[in-house]
Specification:
The chain is of the alpha+beta class. The chain contains 17 helices and 20 strands. The strands form 5 sheets. It has a 5-stranded mixed beta sheet with strand order 2-1-5-3-4. Pfam families: CO_deh_flav_C, FAD_binding_5, Fer2, Fer2_2.
Amino acid sequence: MIQFLLNQELRSEHALDPNLTVLNYLRDHVGKPGTKEGCASGDCGACTVVVGELQTDDDGREHIRYRSLNSCLTFVSSLHGKQLISVEDLKHKGQLHSVQKAMVECHGSQCGFCTPGFVMSLFALQKNSDAPDHAKAHEALAGNLCRCTGYRPILEAAEQSCCGKQPDQFDAREADTIARLKAIAPTDIGELNSGDKRCLVPLTVADLADLYDAYPQARLLAGGTDLALEVTQFHRTLPVMIYVGNVAEMKRIERFDDRLEIGAATALSDCYEALNAEYPDFGELLQRFASLQIRNQGTLGGNIGNASPIGDSPPLLIALGAQIVLCKGETRRTLALEDYFIDYRVTARQESEFIEKIIVPRASVEKLFRAYKVSKRLDDDISAVCAAFNIRLENGVVAEARVAFGGMAAIPKRAAACETALLGSPFNNATVERACAALGEDFTPLSDFRASKEYRLLSAQNLLRKYFIELQTPHIETRVTAYV
């Protein structure tokens, strides 16, 4: 059984199809059709809902953290122990919520289909910001698409609803909601079971290892932003899933003198602060990683584990020399991330083995790290090419070089010939041009709807040139650039 709050209503579910999304649960099972299906792939934001989770600050203060999510990509099992808020829950005692009122007064609703999703993103923004600037509003709404256009009034609604905000019914009930969430906090393995399909929800790494050993055919579910597409886009059935999002040990970020250890189930939005503090380019790229709804849900371990050749984080992590800790039963092994990827969607992971954590070296002033993403759209788009460069110079000579790319091969991959051309040579135009030519030995990219093979290779070469120019003249740097 799993338990969660549907606004303030306690829901206990056991015999649901684990392949059921929160979107369809709201619309078909509890009669809340305000949440819309636009794309069923997490691109349009029409299905946005907000999930509240109990959090405890370093000073011991308990509060509820509200996050926007795409309900079309969220399986119901991930709600275990949480609070689900949909657009129907905002109106209170016959009065519109302030974010709804702002959308009306600023004329932010046009045909109205996308409006519930915008309202829920604004609600999450209001809960997380006292006076958001334009950038914060843009970030919160970048995952919501309005087909009628007219974003200016929606941004005005964001300003009106968030500046000088007043307490609402959720603030008034916070103490009671905290108590209710504590009362339903999971204490044992949860489960949804429809007879022929099941999803198990462990709470510890040990439980996860035991379950995965017992069900090696199970699909691991973290954020589900990739896995859910098999259900929503390809109409496949997932007979057995194991949801890892309630394993607290895999959601921690620990800082050591020489490294960060990031739990594989840590949401990308939670990774931002730690990675941005060490590597601002990594932080900038995470800001462009899909939408805020996806970053609130997708995990760093999932972005690695799905072995996509166009995943944004692996090239950066490979260039930084990151490692992963793989767990199987009581056995753990540490593997360089670059050795995890073998071929297209083929990895070094063994049966019943899972990524427990990612180890990222701390930043060093001697190493010059930069990252760049090339995509057709600045926000909420997939890379055509993603590049990461990390070199160390001694007296103007390249002493160490790690160069990695995504989108250039069947796997995220280091550019060995390029690195060889750089190593031991003065870091100058001639060396960079030799290294650019060597990229043609490293990669034979494919053409697809994102970019041609010629465009990809030329872009990779130009990004290396860009890296060199920016290091010579840092005042003109424009990092993590998009090319249209």
